[in-house]
Design brief:
about 160 residues, binds FE2/S2 (inorganic) cluster, 4 strands, Glutaredoxin, 4-stranded mixed beta sheet, 2 domains
Length: about 160
C-alpha cells in the first residue's frame, strides 16, 4: 500500500504522542520497536521522525537498521524469509561464508528477505538455514549452500524471474 509522504511521519508523531516517550535517547529502541510493530519495518521517513524527536543523528539510526542482529528492518519483509543461522557453531561451520554468498545471489531479488538469525537450536546439524517454516540443513551429497541456492532459484521461478 502506498501512502502519501506525510502519512508515515504523522503516524510516528501520533505514536510518540500516545506513548509519551521522554525525548531521551534511551527510549529510541522502544520507539523503534513500536514503529516496526506498526509498519512491519522501520521506514526511512519514520527513522527521520525518530531522529528529530530524540535529537539524534539520522546516521546513528541508519546504523542500527543495518545491524546484522536483524532486530530492526529498513525494508518490509518479502513474501519469503530466509534466515541463515549466525550462531557461533554455524558461523564456524560455514554459516558466515554462506551468508555472504546468499546475500550476493539474493541481492535485488523481489519477494525474498535474507536475515541473519540467532541460534536456531539445531547446532548438531550446523550450518542451518530456515526458509519460511522449512529447516534446511546439509545432508548426503547436498551441501547446505546448494540447498539454499536451489530454494532461492525455486522462489525466483514462482515469481516469474529467470
Ligand atoms: S548455532 Fe546454528 S543452530 Fe545453533
Amino acid at each position: 500500500m502506498r501512502h502519501d509522504e506525510t502519512f508515515i511521519p504523522k503516524a510516528v508523531r501520533d505514536m510518540l504522542d500516545a506513548r509519551r516517550y521522554p525525548q531521551q535517547a534511551r527510549y529510541l529502541v522502544a520507539a523503534m520497536e513500536d514503529v516496526q510493530a506498526g509498519f512491519g519495518y522501520v521506514p526511512a521517513e519514520a527513522a527521520s521522525e525518530l531522529a528529530r524527536y530524540f535529537s539524534l543523528d539520522e546516521a546513528k539510526i541508519a546504523a542500527w537498521l543495518r545491524d546484522a542482529s536483524g532486530a530492526f528492518r529498513a525494508q518490509p519483509l518479502g513474501r519469503h524469509v530466509l534466515r541463515i543461522c549466525q550462531g557461533p557453531i554455524c558461523r564456524t561451520r560455514g554459516g558466515k561464508a554462506m551468508m555472504e554468498e546468499v546475500r550476493k545471489v539474493a541481492s535485488g531479488k523481489s519477494g525474498l528477505t535474507v536475515l541473519a538469525s540467532h541460534c536456531l537450536g539445531a547446532c548438531d546439524q550446523a550450518p542451518i538455514a530456515k526458509l519460511d517454516e522449512e529447516r534446511l540443513s546439509g545432508h548426503g551429497d547436498e551441501t547446505i549452500s546448494a540447498l539454499v541456492l536451489t530454494a532461492i532459484s525455486n522462489i525466483n521461478g514462482e515469481d516469474g524471474e529467470p
